[in-house]
Amino acid sequence: MSLQEHKAGSPIAVRCLVITVSDTRTKDTDKSGSYIVEALGEENCTVTDRIIVKDDPLKIKEAVRYGTERDDVDVILTNGGTGVAKRDVTIETVASLFDKEMPGFGELFRMLSYTEDIGSAAILSRAVAGIANDTAIFSMPGSSGAVKLAIEKLIVPEVFHVVKEIKKDL
């Protein structure tokens, strides 16, 4: 079966929750969150909600669970809190909720970051993706460049296919 045949039957629209993890950003200063909303809107993705939470494991977990329990959310996109600083706890928190991990997302993100953007600093990226409660979750760094790379090169090209695969056994 060709890739195009495999992707056939994917939904024509998906519903997304955008979560920005930051101790300092507001909706007015959240460039990455705003970019995600704008970019998804151009790709037949409806953003059903957008929230900002502090770099706190309980707040992050609460926000992700809020998304996985909603009937109008197929995909959760987090940005921020993915580095190696002590306050960067998004990855540990989100990954602990996964039923399944999609390691290819982080691997490809780091490869693209290395070759197209930041060189060896890509080793600091801990971007991950997985599935929790039949909801796809993509966790990206908070920088505008990283978000743009992840959205344009990885998420938008595959998000409809990912949702199709998650929902096909339901």
TrEMBL record:
Keywords: Molybdenum cofactor biosynthesis
InterPro entries attached to this UniProt entry: MoaB, MoaB/Mog-like_dom_sf, MoaB/Mog_dom, MoCF_biosynth_CS
Domain MoaB/Mog residues, every copy: 17-162
Superkingdom to which the source organism belongs: Bacteria
SMART domains assigned: MoCF_biosynth (SM00852)
Record pathway: Cofactor biosynthesis; molybdopterin biosynthesis
Entry-linked NCBIfam families: molyb_syn
Stated role: May be involved in the biosynthesis of molybdopterin.
Name under which the protein is recorded: Molybdenum cofactor biosynthesis protein B
Organism, scientific name: Halobacillus seohaensis
Lineage, broadest ranks: Bacteria, Bacillati, Bacillota, Bacilli, Bacillales
